[in-house]
Amino acid sequence: TRTPVTVTVTGAAGQIGYALLFRIASGHLLGADVPVKLRLLEIPQAVKAAEGTAMELDDCAFPLLQGIDIFDDATAAFQGTNVALLVGARPRTKGMERGDLLEANGGIFKPQGEAINAGAADDVKVLVVGNPANTNALIAQSHAPDVPAARFTAMTRLDHNRALAQLSKKAGVSVADIKKMTIWGNHSATQYPDLFHAEIGGKSAAAVVNDQKWLEDDFIPTVAKRGAAIIEARGASSAASAASAAIDHVHTWVNGTAEGDWTSMAVVSDGSYGVPEGLISSFPVTTKDGEWSIVQGLEIDEFSRGRIDATVGELAEERDAVRKLGLI
Ligand code: NAX
Predict the structure, then answer these.
(1) Is the full-model pTM beyond 0.90?
(2) Cys-Cys crosslink for 205: which of 20, 81, 198, 243, Cβ 3.0 to 4.6 Å?
(3) Is Mitochondrion among the key words of this record (predicted)?
(4) Average pLDDT, the chain
(5) φ/ψ (deg, to 5) at 119
(6) Secondary structure of 57-70 in HEC code, one letter for each residue
């Protein structure tokens, strides 16, 4: 049998945590033959609720689940962790300015970065889900100098999956027939879902659909504002779909992308496609043997260039704001 993989989940008592933990424990994160040990991090007030979720995990009698430990201290929670899912974050509340939001999250992601630096396993992989995800990942990464920057990623896989779903409906094809979808930039309303490089049956999806008005006025805003539409309909923010995307992100990172396809991950920029070095921005990436690389050599037309520049510009502003606050 394989050695167990230790997975730390923050915000474990929240709604994404509730949808995520059962799938990790049942083997969907890493594989049906990989035993897991869970370490859950919560704030003190939510530890009891996390204990309730742990009771339910016990009651599922998952054969792969080799233990659950619950913490309210980040240093302890990240001790020996191989996969860190940073879900817990400070949500924006009424009257909060962007600076306040970034500062409040800096108070969470700076110590978590330090804790990962101090105690995580050498092969640690980090996925930040908690918003503003890209910039929270940047904060954590900048406080973990001993961990390669490439190990800190943020989630745009939900946006990627939303884009697949919208395109599949429009084109009347299965999501499995769509390859090379890309989300560029920030996990925010400025993100750019790119249909020019996406393919249906080997042809550009934009050409197959051949409807620029739909692409600009319907597809892009529907994908970018889907989170708000879910809140409006469900009365609560996306949870099961976000958890499913987190599972997909890590599963792809660990197990590799398929030949002839890629995925979307927010990763530290090396300057590719004019994205300033060091920003954590979503790119088309392939993965192999547990490492990602940015797909190179794509031609970017004027329309895509404008969209990419806008979302990357927002990321640069967020970076400047957290730098000014002394958070990076
Ligand atoms: P919930 O409010 O249900 O749960 C968050 C949990 O985090 C709470 O239990 C809270 O006690 C805990 N928490 C807060 N501070 C913590 C800390 N310092 N350490 C450990 N735990 C802490 O939110 P939920 O719906 O689960 O969403 C979690 C985060 O995901 C939010 O920031 C949300 O904006 C973000 N999302 C990101 C998405 C993405 O695609 N990147 C999509 C879904 C989601 O909106």
Answers:
(1) yes
(2) 198
(3) no
(4) 97
(5) -135, -5
(6) HHHCCCCCEEEEEE
**Active-site pick, 143, 160, 187, 249:** 187
Element (H, E) at 138: helix 133-142
Name the residue at shortest CA distance from atom 27 of ligand 1: 16
Q: Kindly give the number of the ligand 1 atom that is closest to the alpha carbon of 50.
A: 9
Strands 152-154, 178-179: pairing is unpaired
Predicted-complex ipTM score: 0.98
pLDDT digits 0-9 by tens, 68-77: 999 999 999 9
pLDDT in tens, 137-153: 999 999 999 999 999 99
Query: What does 301-324 look like in DSSP terms, one character per residue?
Result: -HHHHHHHHHHHHHHHHHHHHHHH
Beta strands in 121-270 (DSSP E): 125-128, 152-154, 178-179, 182-184, 192-194, 199-200, 203-204, 263-268
Angle made by CA atoms 6, 8, 54, in degrees to the nearest 5 = 95
Distance CA 134, CA 159 (A): 13
- The CA 3 to ligand 1 mean position distance, Å, reads 29
Q: Compute, in angstroms, the gap from residue 129 CA to the centroid of ligand 1.
A: 8
User: Any idea what DSSP says for residue 270?
Assistant: -
Phi and psi (nearest 5°) for 155? -90, 120
Cα separation of 13 and 87, whole Å? 10
Binding-site residues for substrate: 92, 98, 131, 162
For residue 127, the CA-to-ligand 1 centroid distance in Å is: 13
Q: Are strands 178-179 and 125-128 parallel, antiparallel or unpaired?
A: unpaired
Residues with CB under 6 A from ligand 1: 10-11, 13-17, 41-43, 46, 87-89, 91, 108, 129-131, 133, 155, 158, 187, 227, 237-239, 242
187 among known catalytic residues = yes
